[in-house]
Amino acid sequence: MKTLILGGIKSGKSRLAETHAANTGKRVIYIATATANDDEMHRRIKHHRESRPSHWQVVEEPLNLAMAISTHSNDDTCVLVDCLTLWLTNVLLSDSAGSVQHQSDGLLQAVKNTAGPVVMVSNETSMGIVPVGELTRQFCDVAGLLHQQLATACDNVILTVAGLPQYLKGSAGE
Length: 174
Hints:
Number of strands: 7
Structural class: alpha/beta
CATH topology: Rossmann fold
Helix content: 40-55%
Radius of gyration: 15 Å
Strand content: 15-25%
CATH architecture: 3-Layer(aba) Sandwich
Number of domains: 1
CATH class: Alpha Beta
Order of helices and strands: EHEHEHEHHEHEE
């Protein structure tokens, strides 16, 4: 079972993803992509750490997401990735990560090849006006295309609004 959970900031998408992962009944590997570059992000990361079960294994991987998914995916494990848009930001800003297209292709292949369930969280960023800056437009374009490709590869696609899951593909019973 592959699940993509989209939503805006503070929409409830991470909480929903954690519930989905826990409900698999499998060991959970939580792949965190965030980097703490300021005090506010430190607080966000701390909040996420405190809110998830302590027995979940956490892998911090800001760049090599495909490798992390491939390494930790097996029949007895649910891989939870939070979050794809932070990962995309890291890749876009990195000189050493390789091209965004190369990284995205690797991610798609890793997701398609997962042995066990995978739950991915990402921010839906392209529902407003066209951004002014070139890098921001590039980010929104890349995120939108990645979401489309992942949605095709996933069994469930959920848009979370105000804490309410809206199933775009699949159903709550899956």
